[in-house]
Design brief:
single chain; mainly beta
C-alpha cells in the first residue's frame, strides 16, 4: 500500500519551500505535521503506529495517507491521536486498552473516533488519551487501571467518556499513567498513578492514586501558565517564569541534584527565572528560556538529550539557542527538537526513529536534521522542467523555461533527501549512479524555481 500511495503522490507534485510545523514523539517513533497540512511518521511501526497501512518500520518520514487537512497530532507509547481542521478525531496504532477505534488490536491507518466535529485539543499518554472539546469539556479513553481517565472509575474505555461536568478546561498533558490539566483560571489539577509523587498532592506510593481530577494545592509564586507530563514526573511554569518539578527523580528527570528519589509537591528547580516552556520526556526534561536557549536534563545513555555526550545529566545542560517557535521532547531512547520549521533528532536509531534515512544499533549524541520531504499533493506546476528520456536509464536532458539558462539542478529521492547537485546543465546529466526509483528534480535560478518528476529504471 505504501508504494502505491507514494507513486500516486509523485505523479502530482510541486516543490514547497517551508516545512515542519509541529512534531510529537512516541516511545520509538515520531509524527510530524507539515505546513501544507500533511502528516508524516517514521520509526518503529510494529503496532501500526505510523498509520501508513503497513507494519514496516520507516527510517525517513513517510506520509500518512493523502489528506492535507491535519491540524495536530499527539504520540503515545505506541499509538497516535490526531485532529483534522474540521474538528474530527482520528486514532491509529496499538489498541490494547481502548484506542477509541472499532478495529482489532492494531490499527495501521487513521480511523475516526465517533462523528463529533468539535474536538479542540488532544494529548496521548502511555496507553490512555485525553481531549478537550470546543466547549471546554474534558474527555478520556483507553487504559484506566490507575484512574488516569479521571472519570471516577478504574475501568478501561474504548470510547471517550466525559471527565466530570466542568467546562473550563484549557490545557491537558498525559504521562505514562498519570494526567495533568490546567483550567482557564490557571489552577492545576492531577489524577492517575502516583507512585513517585507525580500528582504533586504531597502523597506518594501505592494507594494514593486518584481517579478524579484533584486540584494541586501547593503554594507557588504565581498562577500556572504551562505544564508538561513526563513518564513518572511532572513539570510546570508559573507566570513569573519560575520552573517547578515534582515526581520521580531516580533518573534525574527533575534536574535537582540533592540525592532525593522523588518530590511529592511542586519544587523550584533553581533560583533562576525566565523560563517560558517545558517539555516532558520519558526519563528526561527539556525546558526553554525566554532568551531562546534550550536546556535538558535526565537520562542520556543513548545521547537522547542531543548535547554531544552520553553522560546522564542530573542538572540542566544547554542544548542550543534558537529564535522563534521551539519544541523538544523524547521517547524511550531518543530525543526530538523542533526549531522554527527544522526538526532535529538524537539518541537511539535502532528502529530508524531519528528519521535520518538510516537505521543503526549505534546511538548518536548530536542532533541530526530530519530532511523535509519535498512532495506536496498539488496540481502540476505550470512551465515545469521537461525531462527526456523519462523514464531514464543512464542520462537525461532538460528543456526548461526561458531565464533558467544559468540554473542549478538538485535531485531528491522520494524521502526528500538530496542525492545529487548539478551545476552544468549545458550537457546531458548522468543518472547512472541513481538507484531505480522515483525522484524530484528542482531547477533553481536566483529566487525562481521549477520542478518535475523523474523515473529512473
Amino acid at each position: 500500500m505504501k508504494k502505491k500511495l507514494m507513486m500516486l503522490l509523485l505523479f502530482n507534485v510541486s516543490m514547497y519551500a517551508q516545512c515542519w510545523m509541529s512534531v510529537t514523539s512516541g516511545a520509538d517513533f515520531c509524527a510530524a505535521l507539515k505546513d501544507d497540512g500533511t502528516l508524516w511518521c517514521w520509526g518503529n511501526n510494529e503496532g501500526g503506529q505510523l498509520g501508513i497501512g503497513s507494519f514496516e518500520n520507516q527510517i525517513a518520514p513517510v506520509q500518512v495517507g493523502a489528506d492535507n487537512d491535519w491540524a495536530s497530532a499527539s504520540a503515545g507509547y505506541g499509538f497516535v491521536i490526531a485532529l483534522k481542521t474540521d474538528g474530527t478525531l482520528w486514532v491509529w496504532g496499538r489498541n490494547d486498552f481502548g484506542l477509541g477505534a472499532a478495529s482489532g488490536n492494531m490499527v495501521n491507518v487513521p480511523e475516526q473516533v465517533g462523528t463529533d466535529t468539535d474536538w479542540k485539543i488532544v494529548a496521548a499518554g502511555g496507553a490512555h488519551s485525553l481531549a478537550i472539546k470546543e466547549g471546554g469539556t474534558l474527555w478520556g479513553w483507553g487504559r484506566n487501571d490507575f484512574g488516569q481517565l479521571g472519570n471516577s472509575s478504574n475501568i478501561h474505555s474504548n470510547v471517550p467518556v466525559q471527565v466530570g461536568n466542568a467546562d473550563d478546561w484549557d490545557v491537558i498533558c498525559a504521562g505514562i499513567f498519570h494526567s495533568l490539566a490546567l483550567k482557564t483560571d490557571h489552577t492545576l489539577w492531577s489524577w492517575g498513578y502516583n507512585f513517585a509523587g507525580q500528582l504533586g498532592q504531597g502523597t506518594v506510593g501505592f494507594g494514593t492514586e486518584l481517579n478524579v481530577p484533584t486540584q494541586v494545592a501547593a503554594t507557588v509564586s504565581a498562577p500556572w501558565q504551562s505544564i508538561a507530563a513526563g513518564g513518572r514526573h511532572s513539570v510546570g511554569i508559573t507566570g513569573d517564569g519560575v520552573l517547578w518539578v515534582w515526581g520521580s527523580n531516580t533518573s534525574s528527570a527533575l534536574g535537582i541534584n540533592d540525592g532525593s528519589t522523588y518530590k511529592s509537591v511542586p519544587t523550584i528547580l533553581s533560583s533562576t527565572i525566565g523560563w517560558s516552556a517545558a517539555f516532558g520526556g520519558l526519563n528526561q526534561t527539556f525546558a526553554l528560556k525566554e532568551d531562546g536557549s534550550l536546556w535538558a536534563w535526565g537520562i542520556n545513555t543513548d545521547g537522547q538529550l542531543g548535547d554531544g555526550t552520553f553522560i546522564n545529566r542530573s542538572t540542566s545542560v544547554q542544548i542550543e539557542t534558537a529564535t522563534g517557535e521551539v519544541f523538544a521532547g523524547s521517547g524511550e531512547r531518543h530525543g526530538v527538537v523542533l526549531v522554527g520549521d527544522v526538526i532535529s533528532t538524537a539518541g537511539s536509531n535502532n528502529y530508524g526513529q531519528l528519521g535520518s534515512n538510516t537505521q543503526s544499533p549505534s546511538s548518536i549524541s548530536t542532533l541530526q536534521t530530519v530532511a523535509c520531504p519535498v512532495l506536496r499533493n498539488l496540481a502540476n506546476e505550470e512551465n515545469g522542467i521537461i525531462v527526456f528520456p523519462n523514464p531514464a536509464t543512464d542520462y537525461i536532458s532538460l528543456q526548461h523555461p526561458d531565464g533558467f539558462d544559468n540554473g542549478k539542478l538538485d535531485i531528491y529521492d522520494d524521502k526528500g533527501v538530496l542525492v545529487m547537485h548539478v551545476d552544468d546543465l549545458a550537457n546531458p546529466v548522468s543518472t547512472a549512479c541513481l538507484q531505480a526509483g522515483v525522484y524530484i528534480l528542482r531547477l533553481t535560478c536566483g529566487e525562481r524555481q521549477r520542478s518535475s518528476k523523474l523515473v529512473k529504471l
